[in-house]
What we know:
Elements: H1 3-13, H2 16-28, H3 38-48, H4 51-64, E1 73-77, E2 94-99, E3 104-109, E4 111-113, E5 141-145, E6 148-152, E7 157-163, E8 167-173, E9 183-187, E10 198-204, E11 207-214, E12 223-231, E13 238-242, E14 245-249, E15 254-259, E16 264-269, E17 273-279, E18 282-287, E19 291-296, E20 312-316, E21 323-330, H5 334-337, E22 341-347, E23 352-357, E24 367-372, E25 379-384, E26 388-393, E27 398-403, E28 406-407, E29 410-411, E30 418-424, E31 427-430, H6 435-439, E32 454-457, E33 465-470, E34 476-481, E35 488-496, E36 507-514, E37 519-523, H7 524-534, H8 549-556, E38 587-591, H9 598-606, H10 613-619
Antiparallel strand pairs: 1-37, 2-3, 4-12, 5-6, 6-7, 7-8, 9-10, 10-11, 11-12, 13-14, 14-15, 15-16, 17-18, 18-19, 19-20, 21-22, 22-23, 23-24, 25-26, 26-27, 27-30, 28-29, 31-38, 32-33, 33-34, 35-36, 36-37
Amino acid sequence: MDSRFIFLQIFIDRDPEAFVPILNFLRTKELDSRGIDLKVIKHEAEFYGITPLAKRLVLCEEVSHSKCGDVLFHGYLNPPEFPHPRMSRQSSSATLTRRSSVSTVTSASQYEITSVSPVGDSSIREICSDSAFVEPRRVLMVIGHHSFVAVAFAHSVFCYRSKDSVGWELIFSTPYLENCVEKMALNAKVSSSSLGDKMLAVSSEGQIRLWSFTTTDHIQGVVKFEIGTFNLSVPVDALFFIGSQLVATSHTGKIGVWNSMTQHWQIQDVMPISSYDTAGSFLLLGCTNGSIYYIDMQKFPLRMKDNDLLVTELYKDPNDDMVTALSVYLTPKTCLSGNWIEIAYGTSSGTVRVIVQHPETVGHGPQLFQTFMVHRNPVVKVMLSEKNLVSICSEYNHVRTWNVTRFRGMISTQPGSTPLASFNVVSLEAQDCHPSLLAGNVIGPFGERDDQQVFIQKLVPDTDYVIVRFSSTGKRICTIRSVDGSNITSYCVHECDASSRMGSRPRRYLITGHSNGCLQMWDLTTALEIASKQSVETTERDDIGNVTQGELLRTLEQCDLSASRCTSPSMSPATSLLHTNLTGSRLKLSYSCPSLSEDDRDEAGATGGKPKYGILISQC
């Protein structure tokens, strides 16, 4: 066949409307978009190899997207240098073995004055487990405490400090960690401890390593000390500090506590844990048997007969439903009497209850205050704050919020909690991903309980932007987009301490970790102020926070929702693959679109309980 006809066949196959500007450019060297999206024209120009036109359109995109961000952009930290794997210990140390009736702890006691910039090798690539590969330069988690931020990579953790005079500076780094980091905890204000004023804990495959370090005005003089390695013997689902005590919990029903005063590691078996929360010195555990237990970590009580932790049952659900979410709010009255506690919890049946411990009912347990039955699926998160009650269920992340009425700081029945909003958050997560990736991408709510709280919404795993929304109403505050185009892999909302200068106040930041190892800071305080000024203009719009169909489809262009590489439309996943173990770039619905009809949900249930992505795209 003549080559001219082959060329014409290609032209006929293209979209005629999008090709009109291309023909016009070939004739006149001028571009008339004719109302067509410039991205579509750029794709056409790249397909036909019209380099001059493609370069012009690329330049237009680059000019419209500043490399220095917008008014909310606060700072950029380059990727650190990663430590080498240690083949053997290079320095001598004294090994202490502490034995108790509960567990064995091996502590390598070694003080050292260290530099904060370890030498790294960018070519290190390790497989953390048989099921999930973790890129070593990918930021897995970001957490903050006071003016410090800890950043977790696959095999190392770095701590930064914020100072007005010098900005963010690297203070502390761990040695190379053989196992992938799964959870971490940071305490930047340790009291009553002779080991140091900062502590960092990292867990991997049931093993917990704890460091202490002391900072000065000069980063060259940072003193760090590895306290020890502790074994919980089961996967660690949560790792956190309550005061100076380190706590690790597992869904299997094990609790590990390290007491900073006695430097003793204690393991306690309780009922299987399905949720937890902390308030002051209290640790509350929601269990699968429908009970809520508490431990006062300040007293660190031990039973005399067997030296076990004193775990007390606080409340029993009337229906014996599994307690799947917990939120504790200490009212201002607590400061005077120490007994006024409000607890909101969600159950596996979708019920949300509020219980209250009055000063007059000490010794009788909390009293049931309110019950909400608005969810038809298990509640995965509740948040009780000064002004709002927020609940989230597992059905496509359905969010319900209420206004909380208070009298003199205490929850009131007149007129009681009133419904405020109902909305959803769309979020896709990669299938069979590492636990640390899930821990670094929770949606919230974030923020202090006496202030405005926010959701952070990331539509797909590999994307360069996130959406910040009010947790009370779901309205959009702002959209944060990476300044260098790298994908956002983790994030946290953190309020840094105010400086000593007169008039200074704490500021709230969104800190995003990226696929290339960098950190980017964003000023949420300014974003909230701007959103508050614009709230009057947008009060009549109910959908201001929702993700539009066009926005969702543009984001989904970056993902492969089908296990098939076929370019033609087909059932996704293919019928032949429904009963096979699919691997690769598959995504699963984490918090997804709520607008599926009952028939669609029934059809999704018939295919193994997983909704069709075709339904997701057409109806979200």
